[in-house]
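Re: export button greyed out
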Amino acid sequence: MAWRPAPPAGEQAERAAGAFRAAYGREPWGIFSAPGRVNLLGEHIDYSGGTVLPLALPHRTVVAVAPREDGLVRAVSAQEDGGIRAVPLDDVAPGAVEGWLAYVAGVPWAMAREGLGEYPGADLAVDSAVPLGAGLSSSAALECAVALAFDALAAEGAAAGASDGASDPDPDPAPAARRSDRSPWSATDAGRARLAAACILAENEIAGASTGGMDQSISLRAREGSVLAIDCRDFSSAPVDVDLDAAGLALLVIDTRAPHRLVDGQYARRRKGCDDAARALGLGTLRDALGEHPDAGAADRALERWDALDPASAAPKAEVPNGKGPKREDPNGDGPDGEGLDGNGPDREGRDGDGPDRKRPESRDGAPPVRALLRHAWTEMARVQRCADLFREFREPEARPGPWAELGGLLAASHASLRDDYAVSCAELDLAVDAAHRAGALGARMTGGGFGGSAIALVGRDDAEPVARAVARAFAREGFAPPEFMLASPSAAARRER
Ligand code: GAF
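Workaround output, generated via the alternate export path:
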């Protein structure tokens, strides 16, 4: 059975420094790292304005960097074949950079776009302990480590320049980076939120993945020892202390090793379904349908409101179940998008509009019917709200173990919803979750974008090993590749290593 422990930070930094020296024949100027993540609850709702509950993994991506004068970005990765890859920053544009280099070069491009500064070229060497393609946010970890590197080059290069008087023989460590006289954005949480926004822009525009922002936010803004509650309406965040150890629990991560990709269109289709539905309801995001207390009742009422939309015109029917009636403001005044509310195109074939049980067709492009997407999104928001309420109970020792068992139930319900309504699970994830439950986990579910990748299981501390063994055995029986296991403890945000 394969465990994947996080390497000690110093060891990994030295590996990145060694890779840098080997590639470029000089010393790195600085070394930066950023963590991968698991999401405890709140899946596929960040782009719909929901609150998510991720935590940073102890597994990090490390980047060794030194500036260049010529505006070229060069990068080499210990985990990718093909040696040094290079692109002039001036050539970075949507669709212009292929593969993993987009996650590197897109970042200074986006930081400049977001008005954070002007950035020099750089040489970089990457070493990732976040497994690639495992749904643990290796792309965001790479972006965030790169963001910290460029941020420091720009800010600290200025400081080095300022002390670079005639009497100072010190060779300037970052000559190309004398661009600003401010402290780094990474010095404050508000500055880190701006760096996260730039990383999201890089991923959306340059890497071409229309992801929602949870991953970059947790990687840059995590608090050690805490789950971070991120309200994705405005990306405000609050750490929630979750002392699993004190409760005698552990969070087991199961990397199913079923390859996971977000850029093949399945993720984007679901996101578009949610965006179109919000627009049809006259809302900024789906979260706005739930009001101030997004509980199960609010989720039911929102679905009734959806059902009350006339499928033919997406206008409210005469009678509205919650009595308030959907206020539909069509920004274009021309009816729903030609693509259709249900992702089925304008013909809306099969939508008979005769009540909540009416059958809606599968959409042509393989995404589930929009009602199923909405049911997942709204019930998941309600589960997160319930979880936030439970977190308050965790602080009262006499309340244990009830709330933990209930949290387990929320994880299980989240998985069922992602599997049955959102249709982002797969055979390996379902098996991992089932086997973990059968072996005694309090709750388990897929985590991250899905379509492969990883699951988490909340287990008694002493049960981590037996549960992992049971999952490995179930995989062997099915003839799946052996899974890998990690333990997640809430770890620190992106930081400078040296
Ligand atoms: C991926 C995306 F990058 C996130 O933004 C989020 O949507 C997640 O899938 C699903 O919750 O990790």
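Residues 158-178, 318-362 have pLDDT under 50 and may be disordered. The button fix ships in the next patch.
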